[in-house]
Design a protein that fits this description.
disordered C terminus, two-stranded antiparallel ribbon, disordered N terminus, 2 domains, alpha+beta, flat
Length: about 110
Amino acid sequence: MNRTSPGQLKLCLGCGRTKSFADYVPIKSRPGAYYPRCRVCRNKKSRERYHSSPEVRASEIARSTRNKRAYSFKVKDVGIATRREPEVSRSEGASTLQLTLRGTVGRQGISRS
C-alpha cells in the first residue's frame, strides 16, 4: 500500500471523520500502517495531556531536554557520538568548507586541544 495514494480514505477514531491517508501519521515500524487518529486529533490530545497537570508538563519538558541533549552530540558524517565542538573553516582560495572537531571523544580519551 502506497502511503500517499490519493483516493484511499481512513476513519479517524478521534473525530469520527473520514480522511485521506495524508492526514495520518505513519507507523515507522510497520510499513503501510498508520496510527488510528488523524494528526489534528493526535496533536489535540497531546496538548491536553501536556496542560493537564504540572507533573505531566514537567515530565514532558524533562523528556524533551533529555532527547535534545542525546542528539546534540551526534556527528552524522562520522557516525559516532562525540563531545567535540565543531569548528568550520574555509581555506584560502577553497570553495568548500572544512569541518574539524576539537575536544574529546567518548571513551577514546583524546584530550582537548
